[in-house]
# Entry
Amino acid sequence: QQQVKQSPQSLIVQKGGISIINCAYENTAFDYFPWYQQFPGKGPALLIAIRPDVSEKKEGRFTISFNKSAKQFSLHIMDSQPGDSATYFCAASIGGYQKVTFGIGTKLQVIP
Amino acid sequence: GAVVSQHPSRVICKSGTSVKIECRSLDFQATTMFWYRQFPKQSLMLMATSNEGSKATYEQGVEKDKFLINHASLTLSTLTVTSAHPEDSSFYICSARKRGSTTDTQYFGPGTRLTVL
# Structure
């Protein structure tokens, strides 16, 4: 049972463009939604995270949009750069001490 | 920052042997550590949650006698793959949550690539 659905699985964006990755969840008890960035052969690194009491969070070129009623959230990468090429995972968890459920991942390739 | 290290980064072993992977929080105390497994081009699958000083909680389908987890201190957790077989070949990643943290942030290690011949 996939509790966090992520799409697309792969994405090619031109340099300077906007990369958009979407996620949907089923469990309304989730109250923390992080995004992780993973480079090949490395562990995931926290990129940005949001809680359901806000609809948007922006950090630099990265923005999370959150739609609580639709149970959806998305990551927008503005002015995408080749260095952003990595696999991105959305995730969700309940409370401060619960396990994190990951989406399937999106492999992003930013071409010059 | 919060740094988590893993050792070794890569290990190749023969079928039937046991392999120990260490996960350390270098600059913070971690009451909870998590162990994940990741197959090529797939997502991270939680194997177990490890709390300092207590037995690990394993996810459904994960054999606790095969994947032994020890969390003996606030900065170290170990995963031992016993009697490893080729199907155990995978990328194993740990993460740690800061002691006293009021957020859900987990800090991930760089991963250990296990290859069983």
Notes: The radius of gyration of chain A is 13 Å. DSSP finds no helices and eleven strands in chain A. Chain A touches chain B at residues 32, 34, 36, 41-46, 49, 89, 93, 95-105, 107 (CB under 8 Å). The longest strand of chain A covers residues 86-93.
